[in-house]
Amino acid sequence: MRRSVVFLVSFVLLAVVASSAPASPVEIQPPVIEGDIITLHDGTQLHALIPLEEFEFEPEKGKYKLKGEFELPWDDTAVVIIEEYEFDPDPSIMYHVLLTNITDSEQTYTFELSNVAAFGAPNQIHGSVTTQIIDEEWNGATISAPVGGAIYNALIDDNVVATMQEYDFSLSADPGDVNSSHSSFGWQSSNIPVTQSIGIRLDFTLSAGDTASILSRFDVVPEPATICLLGLGAALLRTRRRR
């Protein structure tokens, strides 16, 4: 049976307006954060709110980070714990989720978290995922990609732009043990602009009574050529102002 979760996160950032005043450090405004946990198989909907006080801003990194952990029961099949969640306006998204199958049968889950973002093309994208299976029942444990799918799916505007740990990827642990696997794709060119959001969707099948621990990340940055053009434009602007 498939269980689906969609966790949509939106945040508002300060718009930077050019002026003749002396340059000052860019301040990122506090984000507005709330999400819906939705189980699509029976229409049940739970509403979850992560208050701003649960996040802290790290000015040296220019990003927000979840403090502590966020836990909630999911229908009657699982308990979800978000241990780590970071985002910044590059845009970049990273989160660590633990999901325990509390039923006595194998379950297939979909877990998605996305950030509102806007970013032009061409750009470069990068992603990584570390999947871990933890045996809780002392009878062995398995996590696998669903048929025709992948555990890691990088999203731009809800469209899949990269995948990792595709079918028939499978990871098993011996009784009372754990096992993990890491995958990544290096910086690669993309002509897909970000107009609404970036996100990561995790699709996986998990053995009964066991826990999946998945750390995933997705980044979008300007193409080096774009950065050079922006730098050249700024230099020409400064030259014109001095004349």
Task: Give a short summary of the structure.
The protein is mainly beta and 243 residues long.
What is the count of DSSP helices, taking H or I runs of 4+ residues? 1
Shape from CA axes? Answer: globular
Number of domains: 1
Helix/strand order: EEEEEEEEEEEEEEEEEH
What's the multimeric state?
Answer: single chain
Structural class by sheet pairing and helices: mainly beta
Report helical residue fraction: under 10%
Specify Rg, calculated over alpha carbons.
20 Å
User: Could you tell me the mean pLDDT?
Assistant: 76
Biggest sheet architecture: 8 strands, antiparallel
Distance between the termini: 70 Å
Sequence stretches where pLDDT stays below 50 over 5 or more residues:
8-47, 225-237
**Approximately how much beta-strand content do the residues carry?**
over 45%
Number of E-type strands: 17
Characterization of this structure:
With 243 residues, the protein is mainly β. The chain has one domain. The chain is 8% helix and 53% strand. The chain contains one helix and 17 strands. The strands form three sheets. Strands 4, 5, 6, 7, 8, 10, 15 and 17 form an eight-stranded antiparallel β-sheet that branches. Strands 1, 9, 11, 12, 13, 14 and 16 form a seven-stranded mixed β-sheet that branches. β4 and β5 (63-66) form a beta hairpin. Mean pLDDT is 76; it is low at 8-47 and 225-237.
Index terms:
243 residues; mainly beta; eight-stranded antiparallel beta sheet; 1 helix; 8% helix; 53% strand; globular
